[in-house]
Amino acid sequence: KTALAVREGVLPPTLGEDPSPELMAGPLRLPAHARGWVMPEGKMRRAGVSAFGLGGINYHVLLEEAPTPAADRSERARGLPQARLPARDPLADRFEVELTSVSLGARTPRAPVAGHTVWILPDDGGLWRAVGAALEQRHARVVVLGSEPDAASPADGIVDLSTFGVRGPEGLHQRASEATRRALRTLRPVYERFTRARPAGAFYVAVTSLGGDLGLGGAGEGDLAGAALLGLAKGLKQELPASLCRGVDFDPHEDPETVAEVVVRELEDGNDQLEVAWAGRRLVPRLRRLPLGEDAPRRAVEPDDVVVVSGGGRGVVFECATALARLGARVVVTGRTPLPAADAPFLQLDDEAFEAFGREHMLARRREDPSASPRRLRAEIAALEKQRELHENLQRAVADDLPLEYAECDVTDRGAVDALFADVRARLGPITGLAHGAMVQWSTLASRKEPAKVDATLAVKGAALANLLDATREDPLKIVLGFGSGAGRFGNRGQADYCAANALMAAMIASAGRVDRRGARFVTVDWTAWDSVGAAVEDPDLKELLRSTGITSISVEEGLYWFLREWTAGASSEVVVFEERMLHDWPFLGRQAEHDESGALEVDDLGRPFVEGAWPLVDQVLEREPGRVVIERRLEAERDAFIEQHRLHGVPILPATFGCELLAEVAALCVPGMEVEAAYDVRIQTPAKLFRERPLVLRARAVVEADGAQDALVRSESRSRLTLHGRHLEERVHHAARFRLRLRGSAVVEPRVIEELEGTAKARSFFHMARAPVTLGPLYSRGEWIQVRDRVIVGRIRAPRQRDVSDRTSFPLFQVDPLMMDTAFQIAANWDGLGQGCVSIPYGLERLRMGRPRRRGEGARVRAEVTRVDDPDVYYDIDVASDDGELLMEIRGLHLRRITEGE
User: Fold this and answer.
1) How confident is the model at residue 79 (pLDDT cuts 50, 70, 90)?
2) What pTM did the predictor assign?
3) Degrees (nearest 5) of the Cα angle 620, 621, 625?
């Protein structure tokens, strides 16, 4: 830790700081926050480390900063080592939004509009006529609304065309606010009706004209106000899960009859996709995990950078502003909270004393004004609390000697923005960076949204951004970064207007980047919640909402890592930072959004999985027909740690357990809605090796042998082509097995207790970080301890680090838990390893039966027994169970073969 502090020039914070008056009175200080370790020119950083032993033997080390060549010091001054990894592994990942083709094909409509009453919010260009005619042809009753809903004809569905058409940027905010308010006003009288509707029996569909790409590439001639309705629809879907709530986006010049036909098909298909783009074909968003590579465009934080950060006085945005200031940028943070008087009595109070102060303040105010409502008095205390937090933050910046200042400014006021920016330029120089973090939000159901609060929510994200962009048109901007929210990308209950505001901001930023000629990056970062700071901490209702919906919070340290990564590198216009688990769990996201009569659609029209982590060993489905699937997987040591860390005589080799997993995944793809329950006659016929570290392409085929309502039997095998000088010579079979499948999620918990061997010492696995002839990396060194007695081996497995399996996914959902299975094989092989000094490799197994799914972060116990020895072959039966005595995996007839160094 100290070596890193000296090298990086950072004084790290003290964990569990508990200062005492005696300590604080002396020359020592315990830093509560990381701060720059600034040294006078010509001086060196030095630090001492002491370890004191109870027996009186002490050790002391003095570290001194290494001399650095002048060129390297120049690079350091430019701030290149900017985004430091958190102390713990990141919880979240970086995703980019891409559009992928998913055609409706010949699906049978599951939600016909015949007999439904449909309200249309019309556009100005007459598209409503074509849409109305198409609905009437499907025998729907159409009502074209004026300014108010038609109370006499309760709607089963709403088609909102109000933002469709060609419009410029003038009046954008007003149009977006009006469209959002009108949509909510129209929905209010039928909201309860929608909550009681059968699946896909009610709908709200916003038809927009952002260009047929959902505004991801900038709207061109289309109306950006439609982006607000796209966000609104996502928020509504989380409140009305049985209803169809969707945005459908087109080029503004698309043929009206085509628009009408596509919209009606979307209505009648009945899937749960949140947004669809039409550009001659049907496109849907796909979140793809894309870490920033070494070739990503870079932007250094320079000493002469001037950055304005809106909404930066408190919370998440202030932490990011201080991170930029620590790198040397001069930062001006803005907010609407006025600076408190320096002698304000509440500034010096701790949390407990401030709470008592608040109670006394409310009592005193009630005595002064008996008519003051509790709500008003709580608002007064909340305002003081904001001032107190702002004061503490600024004092922290002063203590750390950061080039950061605060300016009170309402960024929705163009005049105030112009005046502030003129002052900043006069004192600090041209503005080179904008971070737009200002926000307000009030969480409540869409039917209870107040128009004034809707307007304020959109104004702070949309109108304020327009003011900031207009005011810096002549500045040498290098980056504009918007603080978005996961709510804008995939919706959140009670935040429909906030979803609209964030979606509008993202589209505006993409559009501004499309026409900018300064080479600046324009990006929106859609954040998950941060712990300790931000709206999710300050608003108890929002905090409970996020907890109940399973949204994961990242640490401040990790949040700053992701922020600085995007500030200093990358080129995409929208980035999503959240835990990959949400792609599996969040309603109507990932593969849960698109489905047909047989269930969720796992792949797009090109055969690529919607969620790579759902099929971690499938790159692409090449062929698919009823009862038969062919997939392809390219194995690369550089990308797949599970093969790079598993070598035989130095050559990367696919572990048998991952070969089994590959077969299991293609088998499960063959029967939608099912998962592997058991495998039979698993055979490794030819090892899959990456000779000379070259990639190897495997193809796996699965054929259904028997298919029932509750289970299915599937045969799978994997092959590769042997090539010589680019010529395909022959195909080799690598793995083969038969699988029994069960309905997904139907596993039954089965008791299986594994006891330690009493009176037998515990040892470390013979294969821990093995070197020869089998080399195993950390992924495969999860055996915690083993016991061996006669022909029985018992051991424990630490939870596998599945995040590290491949750079394609950090949250893989395996069919047969290959890392756990591999370690179970190792524990069994310790009978030979410890007893004979032999290394064994698997050749196959007779039967594998899966118990309940292993929970994330859960370890297991293993009991293996030697059933037969036929040198060089040894056979085992293995049970794997949880610590609380539940079966995870049962293996019978595992065949291991002893090998030596030369084999």
Assistant:
1) very low
2) 0.84
3) 175
CA–CA separation, 520 and 63 (whole Å): 41
Distance of alpha carbon 716 from alpha carbon 703, whole angstroms = 7
Q: Report the chain's mean pLDDT, rounded to a whole number.
A: 89
CA 625 to CA 189: how far, in whole Å? Answer: 46
Sorted by sequence, the CB contacts under 8 Å of residue 375 that are 6+ apart come out as: none
Q: What is the DSSP letter of 809?
A: B
**Paired tokens of 315:** 């919370």
Residue 70 is encoded by which pair of tokens? Answer: 């002048």
Q: Could you please report the per-residue DSSP string of 655-682?
A: -HHHHHHHHHHHHHHHSTTEEEEEEEEE
In angstroms, the CA 261 to CA 383 distance is 52
Would strands 599-600 and 595-596 be described as parallel, antiparallel, or unpaired? Answer: antiparallel
Contact 244, 205 (CB under 8 A): yes
**Closest to 173 measured CA to CA, from 661, 486, 422, 505:** 505
- Whole-angstrom distance, CA of residue 288 vs CA of residue 580: 10
Separation of alpha carbons 685 and 700, rounded Å = 14
Q: What is the DSSP string of 364-425?
A: HHHHH-TT--HHHHHHHHHHHHHHHHHHHHHHHHHHTT-SEEEEE--TT-HHHHHHHHHHHH
In the block, tokens 């039967």 appear at 847
Chain segment 739-781, per-residue pLDDT in tens: 999 999 999 999 999 999 998 989 888 777 676 788 999 999 9
Judge residue 36's burial from the number of C-beta atoms within 10 Å of its C-beta, 0-12 exposed, 13-18 middle, 19 or more buried: middle
Query: Could you give all domains of the chain from N- to C-terminal order, each with its CATH number?
Result: 2-67 (no CATH), 102-288+588-596 (3.40.50.11460), 299-336+409-579 (3.40.50.720), 338-404 (no CATH), 615-899 (3.10.129.110)
451 HSE (CA, 13 A, CB side): 9
CB-based burial, 341-358: b 16+ in 10 Å, e otherwise: eeeeebbeeeeeebeebb
829-887 per-position pLDDT tens digit: 999 887 777 889 999 999 999 999 999 899 999 999 999 999 999 999 999 999 999 99
Question: Is pLDDT at 300 greater than 80 in this prediction?
Answer: yes
Which amino acid makes up residue 35?
R
